[in-house]
From TrEMBL:
The lineage of its organism: Bacteria, Candidatus Uhriibacteriota. Belongs to the dTDP-4-dehydrorhamnose reductase family. It comes from the Bacteria. Catalyzes the reduction of dTDP-6-deoxy-L-lyxo-4-hexulose to yield dTDP-L-rhamnose. Keywords: NADP, Oxidoreductase. This is dTDP-4-dehydrorhamnose reductase. GO terms for cellular component: methionine adenosyltransferase complex. The keyword NADP applies. Its EC number is 1.1.1.133. Gene3D superfamilies: NAD(P)-binding Rossmann-like Domain.
C-alpha cells in the first residue's frame, strides 16, 4: 500500500485527507527544513502532497501587507519540501494556482501550462515563483487550480462566499470543482506526473452561472447586486484587482487524466451543496 503524507491542514488539505483515507495529514511547517525532514522520516511516504500555503485571512489581500511571510510559505517552503522529497525519492504533488495569469491569453483557447505568467498580486507572485523552481525538478507535479468550488457549505467555499456577498462581479473564468480535483490528485500521484498541469474543469464559468444554479437549487429568495470587475477595487471591496483567466489543460489530458465539463460538474456540486444545506436545516429544527 502506498503511503501518502499531506502538508497543510487547511481547507484543501483536510478535504484531500478525507478523500484519501490512508493519508496522514501533517502539521509540520514546510518552511522549517528540520520539521519537514522529521515528518518524512517518521512517515516514509511514497507520495507527498503539498496543500500548505498562505492564502490570506480574510482573503489574499492579507499577503500584500505580509509579503515575507507569504514568500516563506508559498515559495521557500515548497522548495524545502521538494528538496527533502528528492533526497528520499518521494513523489511530490504541489497545489499551485492558476491565478498567476491575468487577463486574456495569447492563444484564444486559454493560457497553456508553459506560457509565461504575468502575476500582479503578492500571492500570485509567490505561487508563480514556486512554479518556476519546482517545474525544473524531476518527480514533482504542480497542479494549478482556480477558485475551488466544493459541495460542503463553508466560509472557504466559493458558493458560500458568493451567495453571501451583496455585490458580485460577473467574469468568465476557468474553475476547479473540488470532487474533480480529488480524482486528479489521486491519478497524478499514481501516474507520478511531472511538471505543470492545469487542474481546471473543461469549459468556463461566469459568476452568474454559479448564482443562477444557487438560486434554482439552494435558495429561491436569494438576491444580489451585480457590479463590474473594476468596482471591486474602487468600492474598496478588494485592495488588488483579482486574477481572471481561462486556462487550457492539454498536459493533464496527455497524461490520461480527465475532469468533467464544468456545466455537469457544477450542477452536480450544487445539487450536493443544496442537499447539505437541507440536511443542516433539518438538524436545526429537530
Ligand atoms: N483555495 C483556493 O482558492 C486556492 C486556489 C488555488 C490554489 N490554492 C492553493 O492550494 C493550497 C491550499 O489552499 P487552501 O485553500 O486549503 O488554503 P488554507 O485553507 O489557507 O490552508 C492552507 C494551510 O496551510 C497552512 N500553512 C501556511 N503556511 C504554512 C507553512 N509554512 N507550513 C505548513 N503549513 C502552512 C495554513 O496554516 P496557517 O495559515 O495557520 O499557517 C493552512 O492550514 C495553497 O497552497 C493555495 O495557494 C488554493
Amino acid at each position: 500500500m502506498s503511503r501518502v503524507l499531506i502538508f497543510g491542514p487547511g481547507f484543501l488539505g483536510e478535504k484531500l485527507q478525507a478523500a484519501l483515507p490512508d493519508a496522514v495529514l501533517s502539521t509540520a511547517r514546510i518552511d522549517d527544513a528540520e520539521d519537514v525532514r522529521a515528518a518524512l522520516d517518521e512517515h516514509q511516504p511514497d507520495y507527498v502532497l503539498n496543500a500548505a500555503g498562505k492564502t490570506g485571512t480574510p482573503n489574499v489581500d492579507w499577503c500584500e501587507s505580509n509579503k515575507l511571510a507569504t514568500y516563506r510559505s508559498n515559495t521557500i517552503g515548497p522548495l524545502i519540501l521538494a528538496e527533502a522529497c528528492q533526497e528520499r525519492g518521494a513523489h511530490l504533488t504541489h497545489l499551485a494556482s492558476g491565478c498567476v495569469f491575468y487577463g486574456p491569453s495569447p492563444d484564444p483557447k486559454g493560457w497553456r501550462e508553459d506560457d509565461h505568467a504575468n502575476p500582479s498580486a503578492t500571492y500570485s507572485r509567490s505561487k508563480y515563483a514556486a512554479d518556476l523552481l519546482l517545474s525544473t525538478l524531476p518527480n514533482v507535479a504542480i497542479l494549478r487550480l482556480r477558485m475551488p468550488i466544493d459541495s460542503t457549505p463553508g466560509p472557504r467555499n466559493l458558493i458560500t462566499k458568493l451567495a453571501n456577498y451583496p455585490k458580485i462581479i460577473d467574469v468568465e473564468n476557468s474553475v476547479t470543482i473540488v470532487d474533480d480535483l480529488i480524482e486528479v490528485v489521486k491519478q497524478v500521484m499514481e501516474k507520478r506526473g511531472v511538471g505543470v498541469f492545469h487542474a481546471t474543469n473543461p469549459g468556463t464559468m461566469r459568476h452568474r452561472d454559479l448564482i443562477r444554479l444557487y438560486d434554482e437549487l439552494v435558495d429561491l429568495s436569494h438576491t444580489n447586486e451585480w457590479i463590474s470587475n473594476d468596482d471591486l477595487v474602487t468600492l474598496g471591496l478588494a485592495t488588488k484587482g483579482r486574477s481572471n483567466c481561462i486556462l487550457q489543460s492539454t498536459r493533464l489530458q496527455a497524461l490520461g487524466v480527465t475532469m468533467r465539463p464544468i456545466e455537469i460538474a457544477l450542477r452536480d456540486c450544487m445539487e450536493k451543496y443544496a442537499a447539505a444545506v437541507r440536511a443542516a436545516e433539518t438538524v436545526k429544527v429537530s
